[in-house]
């Protein structure tokens, strides 16, 4: 793996993990809010509620992944563009396909792993 690939993946992974978990948290809280009437006041054990939240997070992961990928790629590529790193790479003769290759491979790996 070349240094450029590592740098692009590193600049993508940090926002990806943050946005994925934020989006997953929002989706879980939305579902918990909708199911609050059925849970509240029933004397349900806290272990059961935590188990429910864990299963709910696993169920909502396929919905949170595309949103997290979209937001993190906007953030990472926007940061590369803001710091004129895209311009430097283009002036060095590196094509846009070559710049995007590590991200596409990583996203395809996540997609196969998810489904």
Automatic annotation (TrEMBL):
Keyword Transmembrane helix: yes
Taxonomic lineage from the root: unclassified sequences, metagenomes, ecological metagenomes
Major localization class: membrane
GO cellular component: ATP-binding cassette (ABC) transporter complex
Membrane-spanning parts: 12-33, 53-77
Swiss-Prot/TrEMBL keywords: Cell membrane, Membrane, Transmembrane, Transmembrane helix
Membrane topology: Multi-pass membrane protein
Keyword match Transmembrane: yes
The organism of origin for this protein: hydrothermal vent metagenome
InterPro entries reported for this sequence: LptG/LptF_permease
Name assigned to this protein: Lipopolysaccharide export system permease protein LptF
Pfam families assigned to the protein according to its UniProt record, in alphabetical order: LptF_LptG
Subcellular location: Cell membrane
Gene Ontology biological process terms from the UniProt entry: lipopolysaccharide transport
């Amino acid at each position: 793996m070349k240094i450029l690939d590592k740098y692009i993946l590193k600049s993508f992974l940090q926002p990806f993990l943050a946005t994925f978990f934020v989006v997953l948290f929002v989706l879980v809280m939305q579902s918990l809010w909708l199911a609050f009437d059925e849970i509240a006041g029933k004397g349900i054990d806290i272990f059961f509620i935590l188990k429910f939240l864990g299963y709910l997070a696993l169920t909502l992961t396929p919905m949170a992944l595309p949103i997290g990928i979209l937001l993190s790629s906007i953030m990472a590529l926007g940061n590369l563009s803001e710091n004129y790193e895209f311009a430097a790479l283009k002036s060095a003769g590196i094509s846009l396909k070559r710049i995007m290759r590590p991200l596409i491979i990583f996203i395809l790996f996540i997609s196969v792993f998810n489904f």
